[in-house]
Amino acid sequence: ALGDQQLRQFHNDLQDLKGALRVFCRVRPLNTREKNLGDTVGVTVADPFTVSVQGAHGDPQVFAYDAIFDPTTSQVDVFSECRSLIQSAFDGYNVTIFSYGQTGAGKTWTLYGSGREPGISPRTCEEVFHMVNRDSDRLDFDVNASMVELYLNDLRDLLNREKDPPKLEFKSHRQPDGSVAVRLDGVHETKVESSEDLAKVVATGLGQRKVKKTNMNADSSRSHLMLVISFKVTDRASGRPRF
Predict the structure, then answer these.
(1) What pTM value is reported for the model?
(2) Which parts of the sequence belong to the Kinesin motor domain (predicted)?
């Protein structure tokens, strides 16, 4: 049987083959307002990796991605493309997932979804503790979460309830192996011990966001949001930290 270290190596070799940087495109369906206005979808999914966009003038422009999610793609299908990255995080790799698009494109829906159709974030909360429970007989886990928003060029700690919270600053830190890591100093971290704990932390942070109605979105987030889940993993047998 393959050892744990070999399995981790095979898994992350596969992730490297898929690409350390991957770009996905999700095409959302028309909403009620757009349908009432008689709008039509301006993007055509040509194949699982290519979309064409019909401009106001000239021929359609074609764009290629690592994967395309058409308007019928479910939240489950989107998460399935990201799920393997959570294992990489447990193996000590830094992993970032972010959504980009104009107001009303569906960024918040993709990342957070709803109670009936959860997005990447709540599904990640469940998967993190599924893995914690899976390996708890041989590993100890210390899981913490923080949430920060960037609003009008200011960083706000969404989980710090102090009247005068410390100023948040990005600073570089020298690591034991000689590498340099960028960290956000002053941010409040909350220890979580279950997926329910983590979900409550996320709900608290979301409730503190700057939200305002726009012409394109009745519940538009007026800021950039960062959810950070960090863990320290210790080998029970040796007592040595893995990372």
Answers:
(1) 0.84
(2) 20-243
Phi, psi torsion values for 170, nearest 5 degrees = -80, 125
Gap between the Cα atoms of 208 and 63, Å rounded: 37
Residue 170 and residue 69: Cα distance in Å, rounded?
34
| 8-state DSSP, 225 | E
pLDDT in tens, 139-186: 999 999 999 998 888 899 999 888 788 888 888 888 777 778 788 889
Q: Sort residue 174 into left (φ over 0), alpha (ψ -120 to 50) or beta.
A: beta
Q: Are 88 and 19 in contact (CB under 8 A)?
A: no
Place of tokens 């709540």: 122
Please enumerate, by residue number, every residue annotated as part of a binding site.
101-108
Q: Taking a C-beta distance cutoff of 8 angstroms, is the pair 133, 140 a contact?
A: no
Q: Which residue has the tokens 């709803």?
A: 114
Residues that constitute the known binding site for ATP: 101-108
First to last CA, the chain: 25
The helix (run of H) or strand (run of E) holding residue 36 is helix 32-36
Rounded to an integer, what distance in angstroms lies between the CA atom of residue 194 and that of residue 197?
A: 5
Distances from the Cα of 241 to the Cα of 153, 232, 235, angstroms: 37, 7, 6
Alpha helical stretches, state H, 97-220: 107-111, 120-135, 195-207
Residue 54 three-state SS:
coil
| Domain extents in the chain | 14-73
Average pLDDT over residues 15-32: 88
Local structure of 45: helix, strand or coil: strand
